[in-house]
Amino acid sequence: MFKSIVLLLPILLPLIGGLVVFRMRDAKARRIAVSACVLCTLVSAVGVSFLPDLSLRIWDLGGSIAIYLRLDAMGRFFLCLVSGIWTLVAFFAYEYMQHEGREERFFGFYTMTLGILMGLGLAGNLLTLYMFYEMMTLITVPLVIHNGSREAVAAGFKYLGYSTFGAGLALIGFFFLNRYCSTTEFSAGGTLDFSLAAGNENLLFAVWLLMMIGFGCKAGMMPLQSWLPTAHPVAPAPASAVLSGIITKAGVLAIIRVTFYLFGADFLRGSWAQTTLLCLALATVFAGSMLAYKEKVFKKRLAYSTVSQVSYVLFGLFLLNSVGFTGALLQVVFHALVKNLLFLAAGAVIYKTGKTDVRELVGIGKQMPIVIWCFAFGALSLIGIPPTAGFVSKWYLAQGGIADYGILGIVGAAILLVSALLTAGYLLPVVTRGFFPGRDFDYANLEKKEPSGYMTVPLVILAALAVLLGIFPGGLIEWISGISAVLF
Amino acid sequence: MPVWMLCLPVLFPILAGAVMLARPIEDRKKRQIYVAGAVIVNAVLALTVLIWTPDGVLTLLRFSDTMQIALQIDGAGRVFGILVSLLWPLTTFYSFEYMKHEGRENKFFGFFTMTFGVIEGVAFADNFLTLYLFYELLTLATLPLVMHSMDGRARYAGKKYLIYSLSGAAFAFIAMIFLLTYGSTLDFTFGGVLDPSRASGHETLLQTVFVLGFFGFGVKAAIFPFHGWLPDASVAPTPVSALLHAVAVVKAGVFAVIRLTYYGFGCDFLRGSWAQTVVMTAAVVTIVYGSAMALRTPHLKRRLAYSTVSNLSYILFSVTLMTPAGLVGGLSHMVFHAVIKITLFFCAGAIIYKTHREYVYQLDDFGRAMPVTMAAFTIASLGLMGIPPLAGFVSKWGIATAAVETGMPLAYAGVAALIVSALLTALYLMAVVLRAYFPAKGFDPASVKEVEDPNRLMTVPLLVLSAASVLLGLCASPLIAVFEQIAAGLL
Amino acid sequence: MEHLLINHYETAAVILFGIGFLNLLLQNNLVKKVIGVGIMDSSVYLFLASQGYIEGRLAPILVGEVANAADYINPIPAGLVLTGIVVSVSVTAFSLALIQRLYQKYKTVNFDEIVQLARQKGDE
Amino acid sequence: MPFVYNFPFFSIFICMISGIVTPLLKNGRWAYRLSLFASGAGVLLSGVLLGRIGPANESFSFMMGHFPAPWGNELSVGPLEAVLATAVCLVMMMALLGGSRDIFEDVLPEKQKLYFIMMDEILAALLALTYTNDIFTAYVFIEISTIAACAIVMAKDASATLVATMRYLIMSLLGSGLVLIGIVLLYCITGHLLFPSLQQWVLELVATGQYTIPLTVVVGLIVLGLGIKSAMFPFHLWLPPAHGSATTASSSVLSGLVVKGYIILMIRLFYKVFTIEVIRELRVTNMIFLFGLAGMIIGSIGAMKEGHIKRMLAYSSVAQLGYVFMGIGLGTDIGIMAACFQILVHACTKPMLFSCASALSAGRHHNKKLHALRGAAYENKLAGIGFTVGALSMIGIPLFAGFAAKVFFASATMAQPVKMWMTLLTLALSTVLNALYYIPAVTVLWSRPAEGETGEKQPVHPAFAVSTVVFIAAVFFLGICYEPVVTLIQNGLALL
Lengths: 488, 491, 124, 496
Hints:
- By secondary structure, chain A is mainly alpha-helical.
- Chain A is about 75% helix and about 5% strand.
- Chain A has a domain at about 270-300 and about 315-490.
- Chain A has helices at about 10-20, 25-50, 75-95, 105-120, 125-145, 150-180, 195, 200-220, 225-235, 235-265, 265-270, 270-295, 300-320, 320-355, 365, 370-385, 390-405, 405-435, 455-470, 475-485; strands spanning about 55-60, 65-70.
- In chain A, strands 1-2 form a two-stranded antiparallel ribbon.
- In chain A, a hairpin with a 5-residue loop joins strand 1 and strand 2 (about 65-70).
- Chain A is globular and about 75 Å long.
- In chain D, helix 1 (about 5-20) packs antiparallel against helix 4 and helix 14 runs antiparallel to helix 16 (about 400-415).
């Protein structure tokens, strides 16, 4: 028991650190503080995830509800992923945020958000999950409306509204689960009390559908996706990077928890709800890519791409088989890496050139080669061209689809393919025109605009990871199959 | 403890207030001492009576065998009584500071103190006649408070308040007469007083009457479509809006509805009837309507008033589930909402008192200007939105689980309504908070340069209350246990 | 028709009552109103008296020994008529006094005009 | 025959005599004292009588001059009559006390003696209407009270009062004319004037089915006549100007007592002559019921529109009388019991309201417009309190008399499904309406006046103080300890 206090460490560190950071006006000191916080969290998170399974009952709210932390395979996975990427982005932000102002506020919330995410990963029952989920919403709104412009505030409210509504739907499900589950503590394979559930299957399926749509809101799944293209572009680049790289994954985590740790895959498999959700996911995949393809504003395009890519994950999850699950988690990792990479690259471009429209980016590759090279790798990986990372995950997803679900699976695979093409269609032009501006581009007044190491290093690291994990996915796959083993 | 002690918390403040009206105290210091003394003494009295309850009924007046003015404390009454007795002193101190800029303090504190007694009377009432008596007196005693400023808007609001409350009371009166005729007694009896031999054959009639009575008492609980008076009444001085229109008066309405439903007609008689459907629908509608209107209202106090409308219907919805669990949910939200909403109103009051700003869009950067106030506001808002583990969540949890357990489709709809309203709540409260902490672009900080937190008399109650709203959430379980006993008819 | 002719007293009384009633209601001239009242009352007395009188009976005035009670007519209606007349006289007197006061004030006995004038003077 | 049985006759006789001897007195003051004495004696006698026959629950009929029926003229006395008589005398006395100051201001000195004669006659007439057992005597006293009532209205020699009196007079004459012809017809078809023998014959006629139409006509005429005289809707238009413009004591007596006298007579006729069953048969009650409901609403609405405080109170009387008629219209014992109770309640409340109202306006040189009375309550606290109590009682707040009445009305309707809803809803509505003009009036009275509108502080007039205190006590008594009164009324009705 006493040992399990350590679970609080990765949560409280950044929370307290964030509060401290609010008061730090001096840039240098702040950077040190933030780095300290984030790194410590990273260390503690990784450290924690080497511990055996632990659980910590923090507070009993009476009735059947309590605030309860638990460390399990899924949690470890999430902890490492989040804390790792968070650190990199933090470094990027140091430089980027200089031109946004009110930095102490940004970093304060940024750091605290990390703590909340840790808590999300460690949440041991639905109440705790819901609690951290709501907190995450509230605490990330400031990141969205950071620059305080009218549209930023509007976007912030849209984000708030959608997320709260999603959470609300999830809460409805919570009430029902509390009645039909033996317990709302997560346990692999589900806790549904079949004696109660018998006869109420359809009710429960409906509830599941609701919860999926609710949590799916954060993951940008239709029909609640439209906050994402509004909120991401207005936020500062680092914020939008983590928003679409990580926060969307928080939704995914919640979905996994509910689907595999409360309902249980076996109960849901083959239900009409599953079919509905698969269709929704696929629709989102396709629509997202289409919209991204038509979108001209750089960050908005990336946001749409997020909509599409995260729904790959959801598709994989809703397949409810281990292959799909593996593919989904791989996609989680890769998309987290790549999308951060892309957003940061976009951020770098905006930071240096102030160009936000894709059509203006002619010859950008000549000005900031490193950035655009990284961008190129990210793009390739996102499209899923072997040997980059994206390929592996998509491969699994397609397999999972075709394996169990005849027509639907094949259609799914097809759609994945199409959307991959579209992805190529909306990402590659940036690269190509960036490097090959064409004849009428005057090389005369071309000056290097390469950003400083604060920005480039994280980009490079991310790009490297994207590629390397594609080439050597073995370890990762093992880990994931370790997770999925207990679920199926 | 002798049973006659029961009448002290009721009569003492009424007398104290009356004395004050008859012999105004001009010196502010003396007045404050007098009022504080009276209120604290009475709070202590009330709490002693409520905790070491003397068993037995105290009959004050005996009209006839069936009709008496009698006091007794049972579980529900105890909850309400304690709630009021705790909140009243806080509000009193708050109003000492606040009323400085409203003037006519003798009148105000006179009626304010009287109302304390009347409310205790509502809580202690042993039968419907007594409840009705204090219910009417409540209207009369609070009317001057609503019309305090006596300008056009206040007069209008007062008149509206009067019309609504009295018509409500009139309907409640009808319900009472029917209970007198078809019931075995007027005394509150958990599970209802209807005499089956007399009632049989008149079910529809009695259910109609129940609906009448529900809406009659519901008027004070601001149930749609009889909620109109509450937002208008927010022209009253803030302590009034805070204590009376977020706690005392409106909760008295809710309390009366609980009495009517669980102690008058009885759930078993009503459960599953069309009457239940009607009242529950009304509650569900109100839940959503109130929040929606709150979102549309830029005037801070009116917004809070609408939010009260919505939240009161959480309670009513829970009550109309007519299950013990429902009663538990209702009671808990009654308590928690009281604490939270009074905090919010105090913040609004503090802002008005310091800056005379009444509209949400005037509050840019107040997070920095009035840190304590806005901190309290934020905590309370989170509580009201129902973020676990704060108080609001616990009660909402209770209500929703109760609703799910009934398995009625309408109850499910109610749950959905709760969620929608939670969303709207988040929007209309966060709108304030975000604006206060993240001023819009191009806002000049000079405009709030000399704005600052009010003095201790105001901030201390604020802090106490917001702390309470957190603690209540964390330590809810013993409270819930008590409510469960009440709902089981044990207390 | 038959009946009307047989009870011609009653018929007359009813007609008179109607006339009086209408006068009281419709006349604007206060004096005429009072006259209407008078007609109304006296019609009632006529009616009563006619009821009281029975063909071939003696007036109930006792001289010497009392004859068989059945030979006399019932004295009560006559008594009533007398009382009634007293009442109506007093009522008439009173009303006339009132009218006189009004006339002194407004120099007219037309009720509508009086009301108008009173309006102009305003209340109290 | 026990001596106490003479008391009803004595009480009437004393009033008469004092009326007759008043002209011999030196001045109005003495006349005032004499009338006080008369009414006081009335209270005493009827009180003793009540104490005797109330508990014993007996009733008797008293032969005037010991002539047996059908020649003699009788009084019939039971608990109900005793209660009413006591109340009447008490209220009369208090009204005189409460209004004394204004009487001596409003009425010309040389007319004051006459004024008090009229008061005595009214009291005599009311007592007679309460006690008499003979329908023609009833008529005579109706006329007496009519004349006297008109006289006390016009006693205050102002243009408004004269016009009002004329209206009042015309309506009353109309009414009494109808009553008279009704009585005469009744006599023609029955040949009797004493209630008991009338009842016997009426029942026989009904049983044999003869003269059904004439009987209906008779009932109709009498109800209509008495209705007109007691301001039953739609014949209420004469009341507000008359009661509103007369001097205080007159207004109190008129709306507190005189109108009630006719209603009491109506109730007694219903029971002792036509019997309530027959009345129900003839559907008359339904008409009265509807008129009553209408009156409750119309009266209140009229009062809401009134800016003149006394006329407002007069309109409210119309509404309150509506309650009474509604109760009678229910046509059940309990309904009529409620009506009688309401009569008492209103008789105790309205005079107080009138006297308090004029006491309040005294400080504002008798300007009775509401807006002129802002804060007047602070200049005469007792009057303010009295007015407030009266208002609350009229609205029907528990503990006050009005509430008890409301409860009785409401529970009286339970038996009849159709009338139940109409009654309950109208009750609810009229309660709200009452509140809507009384509460604002009270708030105006108690709200701090602006600079300049304050009047001079009023010394508390002892007579006024006494009457107000007694009235307040009565209101609370009827509101809280109403049970004995109600039992008396019920027994009385049973014995009629």
